[in-house]
Amino acid sequence: MDVKEDSLRETPRQLPSDGTGDTPAVLCPAMEPTNGETVEKLPAYFPQPEDEFPTQPEGSMEAIGPWATGRVTFSPKDGLIGTRPVVDRYSVTQVGASQWRANNQKFFQLSNEKIRDAQLAVNNAKQCVDRSYRKADKTQLESTNHLKSRTRDVHGWKTELEHVLNDITKEIELLEAERRRVKYSLSVLTVPESIAGEFVQLRSKRLESDLIRDEVEEELTKEVALCFEIRDLFNRIREQIEMQLIELKAAKARMEVDWTDKIDTYDIDTHCTQLKNDSPVILWAPGATRFPAEQSTPASYEHYTRESLTDGEAAIQKSENLRSTLNAMYINSVKDLRDQASRVDLVLGEKINLTEEVRLQLEKELLRCLHELATTEKEIEKLRQSARGLDCAMKVAQTRLANRLQRRNVESCRDIPQFALVDEVKILNERTSAMLADLKRAEETQTGLVKARSDLEHEIMVKRKTLYIDKQRGQLLRSFYPSAEALSGF
Q: From the CB of residue 289, how many other CB atoms can be counted at a distance below 10 Å?
């Protein structure tokens, strides 16, 4: 509705009336209706009754005017009108009085016709204006109602988009926190990896007899492998989180564009519903009724919005499922790591206790060995002195035999003393050989004890080295093993 139409609506739409409700016709005096039986006399400037049948003159009309020779003329149309026109330099007389009165009536009749036509046209125009304004008001009201309905629909979609956008924003924040948690877990995971790897390298420096693949070595190897598996799992989870973040952000961007468009549309439609005929911002807009080629239909509009909402809700659901699996993954992974660390610590403690016990037993055995070595050395010295003690007896026996060999003739007899001395020498030789054999065995035993002492001392050194690696270095290194909370990313 334009300003002109508005100004028209503000002007009175009724024509002046005479109080009866009907628009009066402006009639000339000759056409005014009469209510009585008496008929008023017509004005002198209108045709008179005698003009229709004019009376015949009784005699001939004289000439009119002193200067004219006028004569009486008669026309079939006007009847007897008088004399021939008198022409002078001031006027020309062409018609008679009846023609003048008829001419006056013609103009009044023409004026009445035009006035009736004008009044009819004005009445029709007023009725058309009334119908147009009523139709315009009705159409404008319908359009306003449609705009309000559309505004409610747009506001509903906008509100629903806002809810989903808030949910997707919260989900992105939660997933970002999970991504930071995974990254922190990966950084913390380097601690058990380095602890296990360094401990394996330390245990490779054990000495010969203890450089074995024991339970501690096996559990440490399992721990290193488990750390690598969990790191690979965390990396895959991080990739899934990043992909899900990309999907969430893409859905959010699409919904934000749609939400922004709906805000603009809502503002535009709200502004349109507030426009009235007296609004100061209404203007002519030629070409506003065109239909742009890129306009959507209500079906495609609803389909697009529902598709955006569905994509956003699906992305949120996938993210929630992923986060639920992350919690389970953290629980299982941390449990496996801590269980493996507990097993390593357990077998390491058992190994340290066993090695400590072996070291103590070896030290005790070394003491026994040293004691026995001292005893053996004393006994060897005694054996040596004992063996040297028989030398005098041997010398006595051999001297006796040698002296007795100096007997001559019959006196050189194989008597009992001879045999006794020979037996004595034999017994002394046997005893000396036995003592020398015992001395040799004792010396061999001493040599064995010395070697055993050396071996025990070496083994004790090996055990002390192993204890230093496992207890002093290993357990100290294992004391820095991260807690379950740190491994879980908190």
A: 6
